[in-house]
């Protein structure tokens, strides 16, 4: 380990924890060891956390207290992972219907909670609370995945995102962590050129980005032969990485992709160094894969149901992530006993192209509806964006009682300016599911 790596990991990371109030350092050290635990050790750890979670939720969370009483369950009835089947599956619709406060622990006042929101990749932004411990453990799990890629704290890396950096603390974090943060917005060739020029000069060890914008940048890179720099690896996350997309990006950047997946209430899932599969950070949560009949499966395709063992402020117990994955019980050659996921089918993603050529991906829209903007008023529960054959943009919205004509006019005005197409907002009762049980949030007719 070089002096820079040592200082970054053993000194700077601890100082950052101290300044922000996180616990990434101890969690990362824990995860470095626990990744090689036996299946029995992992199960024992999970079930100790599960029993504490269930007792805590029954005693301090109104929704779970009432649910257990209605089902005539006691916390002592949930002792093992197998006992979880006694608890009904939790959906995003239930959380929205019941309200955030019904899921908030009375032991976590606002001073001890962190506001959080889902990525909204099903078209349903969800606002909830989390804890510093849960937040820190998730960061540590991602960092462990980066170490699988060959990265070490102190190495240069580039993070590409649709959003710009605004807060001082994030800018300082970028500086001390050797991160060059670049916005992929707008998705036009002029910006691709700026991004690639900066990457060429910065020479990062790792690049992190969502697959959709990175694919557009990769195609531009292949056209412009002057851009020759290649990182040692790329980390993709945020939406489904399809094989053809992986191949195009890897060919353009001459390196391997390590894909990752996460969502609210679910452990970080990171691609194994062998590239045989993904591994779930089982130290964070319990993952169940169920078939269409609700039966647990160990091999094959199914829905991912997750129990968050660490977020005590807003517990997610048997939460339906709305994602489909392929699970495999065959041991991975890397020697880790963490849950093996061979494929993440995830949610379909698409791109809408504005009349000026600019591309818009799902995260442009989810980011718009997630922000606590006074003109949006958190009034949109679900959305779907449709580009019609005659080049109209239709926003199908499921709204709540905060929605009014001002919200409608703001959405139409904002997106007609962005997309350079006529925009129409339609309020609907529901957005229908596809055959796979998902909502398609972008449609090009």
Can you give a write-up of this model?
It is a single chain. The protein is an alpha/beta fold. It contains twelve helices and 19 strands. It has helices spanning 3-20, 24-34, 39-60, 62-71, 92-98, 132-148, 168-176, 189-202, 211-223, 243-253, 362-370, 405-419; strands at residues 114-117, 127-130, 157-161, 179-183, 206-209, 233-236, 256-261, 269-271, 278-280, 285-290, 300-308, 319-327, 340-344, 351-353, 359-361, 380-387, 393-399, 423-427, 442-444.
Concise account of the structure shown:
The protein is an alpha/beta fold and 445 residues long.
Distance between the termini: 54 Å
Quick one: biggest sheet? 11 strands, mixed
Classify the secondary structure makeup into a structural class. Answer: alpha/beta
Count of discrete alpha- or pi-helical segments spanning 4 or more residues: 12
Write out the strand line-up for the largest beta sheet, numbering strands in chain order.
Answer: 4-3-5-6-7-8-9-13-12-11-10
Q: Which percent bin holds the helix content?
A: 25-40%
Poorly predicted regions: none
Strand content: 15-25%
Radius of gyration equals 22 Å
Give the overall shape, derived from the CA principal axes.
globular
Question: What does the average pLDDT come to?
Answer: 92
Number of strands: 19
Offer a few descriptive terms.
alpha/beta; 12 helices; 19 strands; 35% helix; 22% strand
Write the SSE topology.
Blueprint: H1 3-20, H2 24-34, H3 39-60, H4 62-71, H5 92-98, E1 114-117, E2 127-130, H6 132-148, E3 157-161, H7 168-176, E4 179-183, H8 189-202, E5 206-209, H9 211-223, E6 233-236, H10 243-253, E7 256-261, E8 269-271, E9 278-280, E10 285-290, E11 300-308, E12 319-327, E13 340-344, E14 351-353, E15 359-361, H11 362-370, E16 380-387, E17 393-399, H12 405-419, E18 423-427, E19 442-444
Parallel strand pairs: 3-4, 3-5, 5-6, 6-7, 16-19, 17-18
Antiparallel strand pairs: 1-2, 7-8, 8-9, 9-13, 10-11, 11-12, 12-13, 14-15, 16-17
């Amino acid at each position: 380990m070089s002096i820079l790596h040592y200082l970054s990991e053993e000194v700077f990371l601890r100082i950052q924890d101290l300044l922000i109030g996180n616990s990434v350092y101890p969690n990362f050290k824990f995860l470095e060891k626990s990744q090689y635990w036996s299946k029995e050790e992992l199960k024992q750890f999970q079930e100790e956390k599960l029993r504490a979670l269930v007792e805590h939720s029954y005693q301090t969370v109104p929704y779970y207290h009432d649910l257990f009483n209605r089902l005539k369950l006691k916390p002592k009835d949930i002792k093992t992972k197998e006992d979880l089947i006694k608890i009904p599956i939790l959906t995003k619709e239930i959380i929205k219907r019941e309200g955030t406060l019904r899921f908030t622990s009375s032991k976590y006042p606002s001073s001890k909670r962190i506001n959080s929101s889902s990525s909204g990749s099903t078209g349903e932004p969800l606002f909830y609370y989390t804890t510093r411990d849960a937040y820190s453990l998730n960061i540590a799990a991602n960092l462990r995945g980066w170490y699988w890629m060959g990265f070490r704290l102190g190495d240069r890396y580039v993070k590409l995102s649709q959003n710009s950096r605004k807060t001082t603390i994030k800018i300082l974090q970028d500086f001390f962590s050797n991160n060059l943060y670049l916005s992929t917005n707008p998705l036009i060739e002029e910006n691709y050129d700026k991004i690639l020029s900066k990457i060429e000069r910065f020479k990062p060890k790792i690049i992190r980005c969502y697959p959709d914008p990175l694919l557009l940048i990769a195609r531009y890179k292949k056209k412009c032969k002057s851009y020759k720099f290649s990182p040692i690896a790329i980390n993709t996350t945020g939406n489904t990485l399809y094989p053809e997309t992986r191949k195009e990006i890897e060919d353009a950047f001459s390196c391997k992709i390590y894909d990752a997946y996460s969502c609210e209430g679910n452990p970080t899932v990171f691609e194994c160094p062998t590239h045989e599969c993904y591994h779930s950070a089982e130290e964070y949560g319990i993952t169940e894969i169920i078939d269409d009949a609700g039966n647990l499966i160990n091999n094959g395709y199914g829905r991912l149901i997750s129990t968050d063992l660490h977020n005590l402020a807003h517990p997610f117990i048997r939460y339906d992530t709305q994602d489909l994955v392929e699970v495999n019980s065959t041991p991975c050659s890397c020697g880790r006993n963490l849950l093996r996921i061979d494929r993440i089918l995830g949610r379909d993603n698409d791109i809408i192209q504005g009349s000026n050529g600019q591309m818009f991906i799902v995260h442009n829209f989810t980011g718009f509806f997630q922000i606590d903007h006074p003109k949006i008023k958190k009034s949109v529960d679900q959305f779907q964006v449709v580009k019609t054959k005659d080049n109209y943009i239709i926003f199908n919205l499921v709204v709540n009682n905060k929605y009014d004509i001002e919200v409608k006019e703001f959405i139409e005005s904002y997106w007609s300016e962005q997309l350079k197409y006529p925009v129409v907002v339609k309020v609907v009762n529901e957005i229908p599911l596809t055959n796979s049980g998902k909502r398609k949030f972008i449609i090009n007719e």
